[in-house]
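dude i think i finally got it to work??
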Amino acid sequence: LHSVSCVPALHSTLEHYHHMPAQIISTHRPLYGQSKTEGFGDLWELDLSTRQWQRLYSSQATNSTTGAEGPAPRWGATLSAVGGKLFLYGGEEVNGTLGEVWVWEGGAWSEAPQTGQTPTPRSRHSANVCYDTFIIVVGGLCPNGDETSDVAVYDTSSGEWHRPFLGVAASLQPPPRKRHSAAVIGTDLVVFAGWQGNRNNTGSYWADMWILDMENYEWKEKEQKGAIPQARAGHGVGVVGDHLFLWGGWGSGSRTFNELHYFELGAGAWRKQKRGVFPSNRYNHSVCVRDKELVVFGGAHNADECTNETWLLDVSSIY
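look at this
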C-alpha cells in the first residue's frame, strides 16, 4: 500500500495511550493525551504540512509556573473541534470518573457551563460534532462500572445539554458499550462495535452497527454484508465521502488487529483492503481525516507497549 507513510516521532516523551484526537483544524491536528499508566494533561498539535509536533499546554508545567487553571490529567475523554475551539469532555482519573466540559480557546483552558439534562459522568464514550455547533455523546463507562448506551447532545453555543432518549425503552436503543466508534455521515451517526463488560460474567465484544437518524432521533440496527470485521473494541474510524474506514482494535483472546476495512453506507457492505504493507497491530489509537487522508496516531501494541507513531493513508486510490 504505497500511499501509507510513517511520520517519525519528533518528541521521545510523546507516548500516549487512550488519547483523544480532535477533528482537523485547517492543517493542524490537536491531541489531548494519556499514557498507559497515568493520566496526562498535555495538549499537542501536529502541523500536517511540516510534520512537526508542538506542545500547546501541560497541566504540570503551566500550573506550577503561572497558576493557570486547566483540566486535570485524565484518560478515556474526548476532544472535539467546534468553530476553532476545542471541547474536552469526560474521562477518568485515579479518583473517579469526570463529567466536566473544558474549552481551549486563545491559548488557554476555561471550564464551560453545563445546564439542562446533564448526563452522567463517563469515560471511553464517543463524541462527534453535528450541525456545526452541537456535540453528540454516545455510550461509555459510568461511575458505577457499568456501560451505557444513552445519547446526550451538548449545545456549544449555550452550554445546554439535551438527552433525547431519556425515559425511552432500552429495546429501542443499541445495547450498552464503551470503546466503540462513532462517525457522522450526512444526517446519520454510525456506531460500530465496542465492548460491554456487564453483558455477561466475562464481558464481550460487539460487531453490530447502529444508525442514529439525527433529524428524528431514531435508532435502527444496520444490516451488514460483505467482509464484516470481527467483533472488536478500541478501533478507529474515519469518513471519506460516504465510506467509513476502520482500522485496528482488539478482540477476543487478546487479539489485536491491523486490518483496514471500509463500509459503503449505501450498499450496506464491508470490503477489506488486502494489498500492501500495513502498520503493526494496535488498539486505542486515534484516527482523523484530512481531505482523503486518514491520520492515525499512537495506541498500544499490547498491555505493556505503547507507540507514538503517526501514519498517513491516502484512500483515494482504494475506491
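The helical segments are 59-66.
im so relieved honestly
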